[in-house]
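Please check the following.

. . .
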Amino acid sequence: MQLTGKHNGKYQLVSVLNFGKYKGQILSEVVDDDPRYVKWCMDEIDWFKLDYEARAYLNEALSEYSTYGDESDDGLREEDFNAHQ
């Protein structure tokens, strides 16, 4: 699988996704538009890993989504954050 911006087997914010409903889009844009989808990918797809910067960006987006999007807490907890390294 070849991805623009993938480094050491992990997706970066500049990576272009080549699968799923956001195929052809840049990871950072997907996080901005649908952070829960990216979280789902991390939880459900074994090979889908994010680098540290992308995980931090996702965590921030999820916390904002929880604050403004709905009442559930979908952010990455510290143990989840560390498990996806």
User: Anything to note?
Assistant: The chain has one domain: 1-85. The two ends are 20 Å apart (CA to CA).
